[in-house]
Amino acid sequence: MNRDELLKQLYDDTLVGNGPRVLELTNQGLAMDVGPEELLYEALIPSLEEVGARFERGDFFVPEMLVAGKAMAGALEILRPLLAETGAETVGTFVMGTVKGDVHDIGKNLVNIMLEGAGFHVIDLGVQVAPEKFIAAIEEHKPDIVGFSAFLTTTMPMFKANINALEKAGLRDEVIVMVGGAPVTQEYADAVGADGYAADASAAVAKAKDLLARRRAAAHA
99 and 183 share a domain? Predict the structure, then answer.
């Protein structure tokens, strides 16, 4: 198998979520001196972008997205330390967590995988994350973006509580706030004062990149 065939195969196996084969091909590629960045940017990321596109068209559903994301996450475990060594540029830092009172994390985990695949450094705080824990993480990691996830309508008010906590800590202007989760809408995100909302994982990555680019452009203006 030559380099091009390997990248094509890695793309195809990621698309269908064949985790063991994705790991095998990733290791094979590295053994063939295919750089970690090549594997990421020429096979894994394009494949996950295609997964996102199929999801938006209604050709793929959450289970397909999850298995593809999981397959890619396995490859990222191998590539992450190598990418760090090559000084691969991270797009930005993203602190993510499911809000207090909520233990759902499938959607959040999928977004994390997509963000990592797109070059973000993701700090996942897990589930049931209280406002003070978000504050501590923001102070420690100085992220570009913080993401609040909620799966239950009863925990959505925590978005506002978290944003109020950010304001009180004097951090609101330091960080972009994104919100998401099954019951969340653009209207609700606007109402609580979030900077961005996305309906699904692939949209979240596009939105995060867009918000970050705009913020950086404004900073240089």
Answer: yes
